[in-house]
Amino acid sequence: MTDVVIIGGGVVGCMIARELSRFDLSVVLLEKEEDVASGTSKANSAVIHAGYDAKPGTLKAQLNIRGNALFDKICDELDVPFKRIGSLVVAVKEDDVKELEKLLEQGKANGVSPLKIISKEELFELEPNINSKACAALYAPTAGIINPFELTVALAENAAQNGVTIRFNSPVVDVKACDDGMMMVKTPHETFHSPFVINAAGLFADEISQMAGAEAYTITPRKGEYLIFDKRCSDMINMVIFPTPTKFSKGILVCPTIDGNFFIGPNSNDIEDKHDTGVTSEGIDEIIRGARRLVPGLPLENVITSFAGLRAVSNTNDFIIEASRKVKGFINVGGIQSPGLSSAPAIAEMVIEILQEEGLTLKEKNNFNSRRNRIYPFRELNDEERKKLIRHNPAYGHVICRCETVTEGEIVDAIRRPVGARSLDGIKRRTRAGLGRCQGGFCSPRVIKILSRELGISPLKVTKCGQGSEILKGRTKDFIDSDGDFNES
Amino acid sequence: MRVRELVIIGGGPAGLSAAVEAKKLGVEDVLIIDRESEPGGILKQCIHTGFGLHVFKEELTGPEYAERFIAEAQERGIEIMLDTMVIELTDDRRILAVNSRDGLVELKARAVILAMGCRERTRGAINIPGFRPSGIFTAGTAQYFINIEGYMPGKEVVILGSGDVGLIMARHLTLEGAKVKCVAEIMPYSNGLTRNIVQCLQDFNIPLLLNHTVVNIHGKKRVEGVTIAEVDLNRKPRMETARYVSCDTLLLSVGLIPENELSRMAKVQIDEVTGGPVVDQSMQTTIEGIFACGNVLHVHDVVDLVTIEARVAARGAADFLKQKKKRIRPATVPVIPGEGLRYVLPQRIDLDGALEETQNFFMRSVKPMDRGRLLIQSDRGVVMSKNLKFIRPSEMISIKVKREILQQNNCLKISLCEGSENGD
Ligand SMILES: Cc1cc2nc3c(=O)[nH]c(=O)nc-3n(C[C@H](O)[C@H](O)[C@H](O)COP(=O)(O)OP(=O)(O)OC[C@H]3O[C@@H](n4cnc5c(N)ncnc54)[C@H](O)[C@@H]3O)c2cc1C
Ligand SMILES: Cc1cc2nc3c(=O)[nH]c(=O)nc-3n(C[C@H](O)[C@H](O)[C@H](O)COP(=O)(O)OP(=O)(O)OC[C@H]3O[C@@H](n4cnc5c(N)ncnc54)[C@H](O)[C@@H]3O)c2cc1C
What we know:
Chain A has 489 residues and is of the alpha+beta class.
C-alpha cells in the first residue's frame, strides 16, 4: 500500500518527497521524464531571492522569506553548494529611485532583513562594471545562488536513501477518486492506490487537477530566455543584479552562477505551447538589450550557450497550495512560478501540515539520515585530496571533460548512486561534464562509452535525455545498400 | 619535483615534429605528454588522404603522416606519457598533470613547447535559435564517432559552415550511406580549401549554399529539421527566404579555436585575432622558455606547415636550453597586420635572437581576392612588395623577408591591397 503519491520530480516534488521521507510512510514519486529536474527546475535564474518582490500577504511573500531562511541547513545537510552573494536592484534613472523606495518598504513589510538602499558610490565600489548612469541600488545581502538541478538531484537522492520510491518515464495519465475513499493514479505501466496524491506537476498541474476532478485553474507558460558566458569572464560582476522591476517581471538580470559562469536573462513572454523551450533570435536580442542597460560592456564573444525556461503562471498569480475541497486526499501544489525555487523548502513544510490536517498520521523514523554527500568534485579539491582520491580509485585520475576537469570517477559515481544518471544530460547535470566552453564536443563520445559500459547497453541506446533522444543512428556501413552502393535516396 | 629539460604538451603532429627535431638538435631529455591513449592528435581520425605533400612529397592519410613521426620518436627514444592530462602550467614552467597510474605528476621543465591543438566552435558560440535536441554535432566530433568508434551520428544531414572538417565530413557521410542535404555557409565564399570543395562537394553533387545560415532548429528530442535562410550583406537572415529542410542531424563546421587554457594560466599573452600566443621568430611566447606551435598557435589548414612551424619552435627551445646566461628583456620589432590581412605571424621579431637569412611570415587575408599586392611598410615607407594570385582567407599566405629588412626597421606593417600594380 502506498501512503502518498507525488506527481512531478521538480524541485517542489523532490523537496516534498525528502520531507516525507523523515516519517514512517510509503511514498512514491512519479516523473514523466527520465530524470528529476527535467522541467522548469532545470532552467531558471537559480536565485534564492531575499523576498522583497512579492506583495505582502501573498503565499509567495510568506513562503519566500521562510524558504530563504531554510537554505543554509538544507544545503549543509545535502552537501550542495550555496552562496549568499547578495542582490542589487539598480536604478538607472532618477524615477527608478522611487521604485526602489517602494520595494524597500515592501521588503520590510515582508520581513526581509537586512535590506537597504545604497548610494551610487557604494554601488560602484561593489560592482565596477555597472552602467555609469546608475544612481542607486537596493541591496539585499541574504539573496543567494545555487545550482537548482544539483539541489533537486540531492533531494531526490536523499529521499531515495530514506526509502522513497522514484519512478521515471512514468507520466501520470489518469487520477481519480475511487469508491473506497482511496485515489487511483495511473501511468502507462503501473497503477497506484493511495489515500493522498500531491500534484506537483509544474506546467501541467492544471491538467492533473482537472484529470482528478479537483478545482479548476489554468497555467500559462511564460518563457524566459538566457545566455551563459564563459567562466573566463567571471569577474564581470559579483552579485545578482536586477533592473528596477516593472509590473510584469523582475526584469532581465545579470547574474553569477554558483559554478563560476555568469548569465543574462530572462525575458518574459507568454506563449501557448507548454513544451516550447526553444530559444528565439528576437528573445536573444531582447535580453542582450536589457542586460546592456545594467552592464554595458558585456563580453558577447564569450557566450557559450543559450537556453529557455517556462514559468508556470496560474490565473490567480499566486501559488496554489491547498487540499481539494472536491476530491478528498488530492493536494494541489500548482502555479509555482518564481520565487518557487526559493520557496520550495517552505512549500514542503506547508504541504506536510496540510497532509496532517487531512488526516495523515506522521510518525518520525528513527533511522532517517538527513545527510547526503556530493560527488567528489575533482576540480575543486586540493592536490593532497586529489592524490588520495586517485590512490583510492584510479578512475579519478582519468580526465574525461577537459573544460570542466571532470574525471571518470565522478561520472561512474553519478551513474551508480541512488537516482543515478541514465543519459548525457543526467551526467551533465550531476558532474558538469559537457557544460563547459566546448559544450560536450570532446567528452560526449567518452561519456557515451562509460554510460554504455555501466548500464550494460549498446552505445546506440544511450540518449541525451531519454527515449527518442538517442545520439547515434547506427553502425558505420549500416546505411549502405546491400549491393555495396551508397544510398541514393 | 622532477626537473625535465624539454616538456612538450600535446602529442599531435606539432608536438611529435617538435620532439623529433629537438632531439636531432641535441636536446637529450624530451618528454611529450598527451591526454589520449595514443599519440597523433587530430590526425588519428583524419583517415582521408591529403597529408604530407610538402614534407614527404607523398600523399598520405592522417594516421600515416602521424605514424612516420611516432616511429621516429620511438627510434630516438623520446618518452611519450599517454593518458595524461596537463591541468596546470605556471610562468616558471611548473607543470601539473594527472593520470590513473601515477596520480598527480608534478614536473619542472627548463623549456616548454605548447602543442595542444585546437577545439571546435560550438552552437552556443554562434547562437542558433530553437531547441537543443540530440543530433547536433560539431564536424570533428562526428568524424571521431565514425572513424574511431565506428558509429554513424546521423542519416540525413545538414552541415552549417564550410570549414574543411565539414567538407571532408560531407563526403565521408555520403560514402557511409548517409544523405547530406546541403552545406550552408553564411559568408559569400567558403572557408574551406578549394580542393575540398571540388572533391568533397561537387564530385558528390552536394549543394553549397553561400550566403545562407540556419535560423532555427526543430525537434524536441532529436533534430527533425532546420530552417535555413539567405542572409543580407550584413549577414542578417532575410526571413522571407526561409525554408524548412528535414534532417535528423545538424553538423557544425563553424571554425576552430586554439586551445589556450594552459597558456593563459601561464600568463602567456594571447593574440585576440589568432586566439593563440603572441610569438617571435623562434616561436617563443611572451613568457621566457615557453614556445608554441601548431593549431594552438593559429589554426592551420595543412599539416605540413604545422611540422615546419614545430621545427622552428624546437630550434628555439634548443637554443634557449643551450643559452648560458639569462637574457635581459630583448629588443623586438613588432610586425602588425595592416589593411586586407586578419593576422600576421610571428607577431614580433627578437633582434637578439637567432635570425636566418630569410624569415618566413604567415598571414591570412580578410576576404578572397583574385589578385592582390602584399606590401611591407616601415616608418620609412614600403620596404618590400609582392604580387599574389588567387587569395583565399582559408589558404594561408606565406612570404619570406630578408634579414636586413628586419634588422633595419623598428616596426613593420604588412598589408594586402586588392588588384595588382600593373593592373593586368
Ligand atoms: C525563467 C525562470 C526564472 C526563474 N527564476 C527563479 C529564481 O531565480 N528563483 C526562484 O526561486 N524561482 C525561479 N523560477 C521559478 C522556479 O524555477 C520554479 O518555481 C520551480 O522550478 C518550480 O518547480 P516545480 O517542481 O514546481 O516544477 P517543475 O520543475 O516543472 O517540475 C514539475 C515536474 O512534473 C513533471 N510532470 C508534469 N506532468 C507530469 C505527469 N503527467 N506525470 C508525471 N510527471 C509530470 C514534469 O516533467 C516536471 O519534472 C524561475 C522560473 C523561470 C521559468
Ligand atoms: C578534422 C580535420 C581535418 C584535417 N584535414 C587535413 C588535411 O586533409 N590535410 C592537411 O594537411 N591538414 C589537415 N588538417 C589540419 C592538420 O591536421 C592540423 O592542423 C594538425 O593536426 C594540427 O596539429 P597539432 O599537433 O597542432 O594539434 P592536434 O593534432 O590537435 O594535437 C594536439 C594534441 O594535444 C593534446 N592535448 C591538448 N591539450 C592537452 C592537455 N592539456 N594535456 C595533454 N594533452 C593535451 C591532444 O590530445 C592532442 O593529441 C585537418 C584538421 C582537422 C581538425
